[in-house]
Design brief:
By secondary structure, this protein is of the alpha+beta class. The chain has helices at residues 27-40, 132-145, 156-170, and strands spanning 5-6, 45-47, 57-61, 76-96, 106-119, 125-131, 180-181. Bound molecules: nickel (II) ion.
């Protein structure tokens, strides 16, 4: 089932999300629905707060970009209760967008390596390191579970410049081909 994507301005996007365990009802269906919603909206990642659930869950399928970024090869994963233990490496600038912020794309500076612990959809624990664009996508989605959006990483000047656009987005004045939930 395709779920509505919550747009900028919805309070759930600003909450620190809660951990879940294997008793979370309907988890496997939820994961399936999140992938379906993400594919429909041409995203490469989707976090539960973006569909209105304040839980520590995000899904990624970055394989459509694997030709440009070898580190994304076969990178399709479910992250539950993730915790980034370390962010390190060189600072890199890359353009980012977000399904909750349609029409906005900006360069975001992030460090190029992370170490993360998380559970997969079967609640098996993982302790892994990621580099480059994979580390970036994870940081972006992880931020959602912390109530942070990529625009929070921009300069004050850039943010001021985006104010009008953000206001429109929060009112649902966007041109997208996926279901949305906004103030209107
Ligand atoms: Ni996002």
């Amino acid at each position: 089932m395709i779920l509505p994507v919550y747009l900028y301005g919805q309070p759930v996007l600003r909450k620190v999300a809660e951990e879940i365990d294997e008793n979370y009802e309907g988890l496997h269906q939820l994961i399936e629905d999140m992938y379906e919603t993400m594919y429909k909206s041409d995203g490469i990642g989707l976090a539960a707060p973006q569909i209105g659930l304040s839980i520590r869950l995000f899904v990624i399928d970055a394989t459509p970009m694997e030709e440009d970024y070898p580190e994304l090869k076969d990178f399709k994963k479910v992250f539950i209760n993730a915790e980034i233990l370390e962010i390190y490496g060189d600072e890199m600038d890359e353009s980012e967008g977000c399904l909750s912020l349609p029409g906005i794309r900006e360069n975001v500076t992030r460090q190029s390596k992370i170490r993360i612990i998380y559970q997969d959809e079967n609640f098996v624990e993982h302790d892994e390191t990621y580099i480059g664009f994979a580390a970036r996508v994870i940081q972006h989605e992880y931020d959602h579970t912390e109530g942070t959006l990529f625009i929070d990483h921009l300069s004050q000047l850039k943010k001021r410049f985006l104010k009008g656009k953000l206001n429109s987005i929060s009112k649902g004045n966007v041109d997208v081909n996926y279901r949305i939930k906004s103030q209107k």
